Amino acid sequence: MTLILLVDDEPELLEAWSFALEYVGYSVDRARDGREALEQLSRRRPDLVITDLMMPGMNGEDLCRSIRQHAQWAGIPIALHTSAHVGTPVDERLWDSVLRKPARLEVFLATIENLIQG
After folding, report:
1. pLDDT per residue over 11-65, tens digit each?
2. Are the C-beta atoms of 32 and 15 separated by less than 8 Å?
3. Which residues in the chain belong to E strands, given as ranges?
4. What share of the chain is helix, strand, coil (3-state, %, to 5)?
5. Are the C-beta atoms of 60 and 80 separated by less than 8 Å?
6. Domains and CATH numbers, the chain
7. Which of 17, 49, 76, 97 would you label with 105, given CA atoms 20 to 30 Å apart?
């Protein structure tokens, strides 16, 4: 079963997207910030990470940078799910896709499927 790590500090959003992902057949691990996400990653390697950008503690950009710098995790696709305007750092490819909040369910699921399929 495909495992997705979903990272967001908004409990309602975390619960809603987790439910939607599990409903269509994905297994979901949840984290409320970047530090908690790294703990989850050290326990189980997901097939995809979906993260918010603006979170307390370790934000999404720092989380993505940590994932990309860790040899074991560097190849995991990452979707950034945010309401913030995001530019792409010139010297780094921190994420593979950006989903604007609020993303429509169909777009959210199609993006995930594309990232998982490679």
Report:
1. 999 999 999 999 999 999 999 999 999 999 999 999 999 999 999 999 999 999 9
2. no
3. 3-7, 27-31, 48-51, 78-82, 97-100
4. 40, 20, 40
5. yes
6. 3-117 (3.40.50.2300)
7. 76
